[in-house]
Amino acid sequence: MGRGRTWSRHLPWLQGLGRVVVYDASWHRGRGERPDLETGDGRSIATERFVEEAAAVLEAHADGPAVVVGHSMGGLHAWCLAAARPELVQALVVEDMAPDFRGRTLGPWEPWLESWPVEFPDDDAVDALVGPVAGRYFRESFDRIPGADGSPGGYRLHGHIDVWCAIAAQWGKRDYWAEWAAVQAPALLVEAAHGVTPAGQMREMAERKRAQRSRSARHVVLDAGHLAHDVAPGQFQQLVTEFLREARISSRR
């Protein structure tokens, strides 16, 4: 439910490491973009579709293998990209995402999500629904509604709740351990202590890489919620910077 511009506050330090490309995933670009969920064809919202999209972004904009940073859904797509297209990925940063959510669904969260209004009149209305930290994140994601005098007014959802729920529902039916096993790039795994990942899975991701010996992954837990990079930006910056330095990753990309 995020968007590329939610990383805007992190661009100054990220750009200190190299050129940065952010993008909006399909179905996160505005209310006018919508797949046909009634056909039963999940191709348009499948993980593989997003991986192809990410690969196309790198092919168009990256000058060689890139460091790919992904949060939540973006983290899953990042390591699936590294597995499918290893020549495009130099290193990975995966934040608060795990390979196996089978049997876990949005469940009781869906009625609450579906109760969200399409439009919010102001900042306070967004923050009242999700709190100030997530409120800032969503305000950066939502489309702006022009005010009567042409100034910024309220906010509009940048997609459709049922589509976002359908995307997440896939994760309750399959796991991504095979894709993780295929990753060749060094990886930093940042787990949020109060996030959404099943207990122990991100630690196990690192342990499985150590067992492969030829692969490397560092696992770190931050005392934060799901939006760890926003709750603890200084710690997140330090972790990423140290990881790239220790992995001797080029800062040009």
Short description:
By secondary structure, this protein is α/β, with parallel strands linked by helices.
Query: How are helices and strands ordered from N to C?
Result: HHEHEHEHHEEHHEHEHH
Mean pLDDT: 92
> How large is the share of residues in beta strands?
15-25%
Quaternary state reads single chain
Based on DSSP secondary structure assignment, what is the total number of beta strands?
A: 7
In CATH terms, what is the fold-level topology of the domain at 4-102 and 175-246? Answer: Rossmann fold
> What is the CATH architecture term of the domain at 4-102 and 175-246?
3-Layer(aba) Sandwich
Tell me about the largest β-sheet: 4 strands, parallel
Classified by CATH, the class of the domain at 4-102 and 175-246 is Alpha Beta
Spans of at least 5 consecutive residues whose pLDDT stays below 50 are none
- What structural category do the secondary elements indicate? alpha/beta
Task: Estimate percent helicity.
Answer: 25-40%
- Tally of contiguous helical segments: 11
Radius of gyration: 18 Å
**What's the end-to-end separation, in Å?**
26 Å
Could you name the CATH homologous superfamily of the domain at 4-102 and 175-246? Alpha/Beta hydrolase fold, catalytic domain
Which strand order does the major sheet show?
A: 1-2-6-7
Account of the protein in words:
It contains eleven helices and seven strands. Helix 2 crosses helix 3 (73-84) and helix 5 (123-130) packs across helix 6 (132-141). 30% of the residues are buried. The strands form two sheets. Strands 1-2-6-7 form a four-stranded parallel β-sheet, with helices on both faces. The protein has a three-stranded antiparallel β-sheet with strand order 3-5-4. It has helices at 11-15, 47-61, 73-84, 109-114, 123-130, 132-141, 161-169, 177-181, 201-212, 228-231, 233-246, and strands spanning 66-71, 89-95, 119-120, 143-146, 152-156, 187-194, 217-225. The chain is 40% helix and 16% strand. A hairpin with a 5-residue loop joins strand 4 (143-146) and strand 5 (152-156). It is globular and about 60 Å long. By secondary structure, the chain is of the alpha/beta class. The chain has a domain at 4-102 and 175-246: Alpha/Beta hydrolase fold, catalytic domain (Rossmann fold, 3-Layer(aba) Sandwich).
